[in-house]
Structure formats: C-alpha cells, structure tokens
Amino acid sequence: MQITTDGRNKKVKSILVTLPKPDSEKSPYFELAKKYNLKIDFRSFIHVEGVPAKEFRKEKINPADFTAVIFTSRNAVDHFFRICEEMRQEVSPDMKYFCISETIALYLQKYIQYRKRKIFFGKQTAADLAEVLKKHVSETFLYPCSDVAAEETQKFLQVNGYNYKSAVLFHTVCSDLSDLAEVYYDIIAFFSPSSIQSLYMNFPDFQQNATRIAAFGASTYKAVVERNLILDIPAPTPNAPSMTMAIEQYIKIVNK
Hints:
Rossmann fold; globular; 30% helix; five-stranded parallel beta sheet; 9 helices; alpha/beta; six-stranded mixed beta sheet; single chain
C-alpha cells in the first residue's frame, strides 16, 4: 500500500465524493463542509441498470425456492423486489432477511412491514453475520448482487458451506464524466473498484499529481494500488470507521 508523503500534505479546500448527493441535510458531509469551510461536491461515478425479468428468467432462478435472502446494498434490495414484481412472484411472509448492516435492514421498510418479518443484520460485512447465520444453517439463501459482486461475501458463504445461490439482478455501469474534464479537486473519495474503473474509462490519461485519494474498503484500496495511485486517506480504520471521519482527521493535520 502506498502512503502519502509529507510533501503532499497541502491544505484541502475542495472534495469530490463519488456518490450521489445525500437526501438528508443532516449528512456528515454537509457538517464537514460547514465546519472547515470546504467545497464538497457529489457525483456518482457509476450507476446501476436492472436486469430485465426476461433476461433473468434464463438463469432459471426462482425467488420462491429460497427461504432467506442476503442483502449487501440498497440496490440489491430494490432490484430483488423489482424482479419479484416483474416475475409476478409473491415474496413469502416467512422469508428471512439477512442484511450486511442495520442501515440496509431499515431500508427494507420501503417494501415490507418491518416488525412483522424475520430480519437480521451485522455491522458491515458478511463475516459480521457469522454468529446469526450459524443459527440458520438449514436455510437456502439467495444472494442478489450486481455483475461485479463483492468477492469477499461470496467467498465467506462458500467457505462456510452455506447453501446459497448468487443472482445477478443489476449491472454496474460507468457514468459519463466528460463534464469533469477540466475540474480539479484536492481530494477525490472512492468507495468501490468500479468507481476507479470509471475514472480511467472516462480519463485514460488521468494523472494524480497533487490530488489526494481517499478510498473506502479493502477492494477499493487494491484498485487504487493497482493503478499506481497514492492512497492518502484509507477508511475504515480503527480510529475512523467512516469516510467522513477519516477525511476530517486528515484535514485536521493539513489545514492547520
């Protein structure tokens, strides 16, 4: 892993977050911008396109054949219920839901009566669900995912011998970023390898120069290093479990 040197520790005035703009004004990003007088912009480097039911049927996967679902993103939740609706498959009220985090578990309220369903959640990874899953080894799990599904989740399920099936319900597609060609930011925050891929799809000759790179998660770290970029701000860390916390700790050092 490449780590920043002191010569790169310049004052931060602008940040590009490669995610959609938060719906709530209470987002920690807005608080960060106000606290340190920063310009923070949001721009999703990737977007998802759902797999049509006609195409999905070719996989011969019937949601009704499973007793439990594992969700690792809100996209997975949206497209699971979308595909069930398109296939006219009624989701059993006895279906069990295992979510990677409480945030995703609460998002299920968009589609089901939360208190009347069997819902379990971990802290952030499939491994966090280990103790809960051990109590449900007899379940048949459906894992809705994209065409670039997290390998760590599938590896965990496979290594631990769970009876599961991956279902690709949406594709991750690089967004058009041509309008950013002449725009410069002190920090660019990435959250997935796909976002790094999108950067180079749009700007094959991208040069990092003085731009600081923030990356969330091991797979994103790896993508940064494989592109020979300098990783300035890794997250999560024991002292900074979120991206905003990691960025703030960095700013406290360089914006003195």
